[in-house]
Each structure stands twice: as structure tokens, then as C-alpha cells.
């Protein structure tokens, strides 16, 4: 079969309706590569919100609207992974924007590099109004570069990635329902020898807005959750980079780093 006729299954979880959702949906439905199914995992919403989400999605036959009441993102993603029919899994979030050639570029990469399991690309950061931010999402291109930093930071933007579906299934899917469940998945895939790549093309605009801001009470909870798997992999490998990864998300260090950045930028 021609690689450019392969079906892509897009997993897009949504837990509430807002003004960004129709924009995210449109960016998928208007892809230049059209052979995909869009699995919208509507998780834990009331009837009123479900009706609004359904109204946005119902006009295209490629959309599969799945209503769930599963607590947490991980359960919804694993459910979607089992429903998916495509050879490839593309992730997408309900408040971001995929570039129109994203799928075409990622499929083209896979067609030329069949040994890879995950492909992303450059990511632009935008604000609530869709304006580009000065802050950049760090770009690591090659598998070696990505492997080098994975133990202490996440160099991959989850909603901008495309996976070989069988690789996700073979590795056991998403395993931990906590902050940075994607980072843990990537470390697990790295340790199993799966290969990553980020193409030098802007595949996604990642939206930063008020609802994402982590307050101080949650920051320590997230630190504990992330440190749990970082410490686990440190004990398995004795690689000190995992300890560095714990320090990077330690709240006082994060506050100090952000304060210093603000001072330098003024």
C-alpha cells in the first residue's frame, strides 16, 4: 500500500467547551492530507457542553464523537488508542492549532524513514488571542539529541506528535495518570530503543492561556508525581540526569528560574 494512502487516527480529548475548540477542530479537518479519522474523546462533560461539542463536530463524516466518563486524560487516551483503526496515531489538544500540512509532512517523513516510531516538529507558542509569543519551545531535531535530554526534560510537544500505532501498543500505552504522563511514555520508549525525530517544520501552534497556569498548591503535587517516575528510572539506570530532572521541576527552583528570566528580559 502507498504510504500516502495510510489511515491516520487522530486522538483529541476534550473535557470542556470553549472558544478554542472549534479552531482546533478546523485545523484538523482542513489538513492537506485527508485520509484520517478524528476520534474526539469527550470526557466528563454535562449534556449542555456535549451538545455544543457535537454541533462543531457533526458536519464531517471523518469525526467519531465518543462520550466518556473516565477520570483523567490517560484513561481517555488509552480508550481512544483501542478504538483507532489507523496505522498512525496523531495527537491533538482541544486548544491548539495544527498547521495545514502537518499530517502530510509527518507521513512523508515516515515513508522515507520506516525505522522511526515518533515524529514531531517545530512548535510555535501562542497566547489566548492567537498571537505569537517571544518565548520559544526548544527544538531538538535528531534521535540522539532527543535521547540526550529526555532524562531531565521533555523535548517533545505531545499534541504535535505522530506515532506508529503498533509502537504505542507494544510499549503498553499510557501507564500513569498524573502530570507529564507523556514524558514518562517517551522515557519508556527510549529505554526500549524506539526512535524519535522532530522535522524542521512548524507542525503546531501550542496555546498558552490562563487555564493552564499552575498555582503553588498544585506545583508541589506535580513535583511529587513527576519525581516519582524520575526516581524510578534513576534507580533502574543510575543515570544522574534523572536526578537533574527532579531538580528542574522542584517548585522553589522553578520560581527562582522564572524570576531570573523576568529580570533578564526587562
UniProtKB/TrEMBL annotation:
- Please state every residue range assigned to the domain named Glycosyltransferase 2-like: 19-169
State the EC number(s).
2.4.-.-
Keywords in alphabetical order: Glycosyltransferase, Transferase
Q: What family does this belong to?
A: Belongs to the glycosyltransferase 2 family.
What is the protein named? Answer: Glycosyltransferase
> Which PANTHER family is this protein grouped with?
GLYCOSYLTRANSFERASE, GLYCOSYLTRANSFERASE EPSE-RELATED
Keyword Glycosyltransferase assigned to the entry: answer is yes
* UniProt GO molecular function: glycosyltransferase activity
